[in-house]
Amino acid sequence: xxxxxxxxxxxxxxxxxxxxxxxxxxxxxxxxxxxxxxxxxxxxxxxxxxxxxxxxxxxxxxxxxxxxxxxxxxxxxxxxxxxxxxxxxxxxxxxxxxxxxxxxxxxxxxxxxxxxxxxxxxxxxxxxxxxxxxxxxxxxxxxxxxxxxxxxxxxxxxxxxxxxxxxxxxxxxxxxxxxxxxxxxxxxxxxxxxxxxxxxxxxxxxxxxxxxxxxxxxxxxxxxxxxxxxxxxxxxxxxxxxxxxxxxxxxxxxxxxxxxxxxxxxxxxxxxxxx
Length: 275
What we know:
Strand order of the largest sheet: 1-2
Helix content: 55-70%
Number of helices: 10
Radius of gyration: 19 Å
Largest sheet: 2 strands, antiparallel
Distance between the termini: 44 Å
């Protein structure tokens, strides 16, 4: 691991902590105490992102695929980062290895995100509102709705949940999982769908998903137009492994369908809304 990886990790830690402080209503540049108010958010978000990438990393190392350590991307944004990634430096031997490397990241990420989200929701608090909420409002995926109901029960329309910083980080963990599990191109979901369905069906599925993103982007949330355009720019096709005719065993096929069910549970048609 080079110094560059450590530098990016450290800078991203600073930017996510600053973002967490802003979310908590503090100016992180006013004092060290104010800056530290962002630590609950940054610790949990960085842990979720790191867990996801280490899932890919260790699966790659297990199968002797050459990869880089995780690169973290700092950003002056609401959450302080554009995420993290690892770079695969050698071709995939076969579909089994491709599947294992692709599925390891999002499964690790969701396993880590769930207890964090449950903890965060249980430490959030309720607020009675007499008028529509002003500002940024988060959307609910099916899994988030279920966990909210499990912890807080059926809430009246005038009850608003003020999320604990770890709950917001957990929400982001679900959102990142959904993004990565899209069966498009060379996303994690693209690796899974290519290994599961083969080259031709993967190419068709990629086009269908991007088309649906376009529809959702026009009628529900415009951000999906950007994401669909980015996927088109990155390319919808997937490089072949060295042995493209290898087949997945039954356990991997079941795990692949489970991964796409997780995508369905975590996908949020309107992730953010500003009133």
